Amino acid sequence: MNGAHDCGGMMGLGPVVAKVNEPVFHAPWEARMFALMSAVGDIGGWTLDEDRAACEAMEPGHYITSSYYEHWLSGLERLLQKHGLATAEEIASGLAMTPGKAVMPTAAEAVWPAITAPGGYERKSDAAPLFKLGDAVRTRHLNPAHHTRLPRYLRGHTGEIVACHGAHVFPDSNSRGLGEDPRHLYTVRFNASDVWGNAARDVIHADLWEPYLEAR
Q1: 164-197 pLDDT, tens per residue?
Q2: Which of 97, 105, 122, 212 is 20 to 30 A from 2, alpha carbon to alpha carbon?
Q3: Residues 96 and 146 in one domain
Q4: 3-class DSSP state for residue 43?
């Protein structure tokens, strides 16, 4: 999706200024938002990729003028309705109008271990990788209406495979409820001068799935 979230390389937005000693949460409601997303995600059964897609579906003007956890709130409201856990009327009023889904609540002492437990998205695949180290590749010029992890500023550019990571969950499929659809994942190196159109000597490394790439 070419939404407001994918603004890498766009001009006029100013520099990214890191705040010194920035708190994890700027207000109590942000901590509550974190807790809600962590708890309700298990009940709703949606994936991390579907969660990201829901946040990205926020109205662009609102997206760029709102905070990180407001994006989470918008995404959660969308997912609650999509998965039949709450209606728009219930969300607006803050009152339940239909019977809730019966679930076993997670014990308070089990929350933090569950959140911080190690996990991974590497999967097995019977498909042989199409590319190898040193291969020159070009990113496809895609403009999908759905969630994708191919940054807009890298589309249509040529790079070199510098690492092969095996098969991983493919976000474009997983975000749409089409299953994990494991695809091979590579680190591709680009010359910044090719991407940005200037004489910079920097390089850009991006982890990109096989369907995003074609042989040069």
Answers
A1: 999 999 999 999 999 999 999 999 999 999 998 8
A2: 122
A3: no
A4: helix
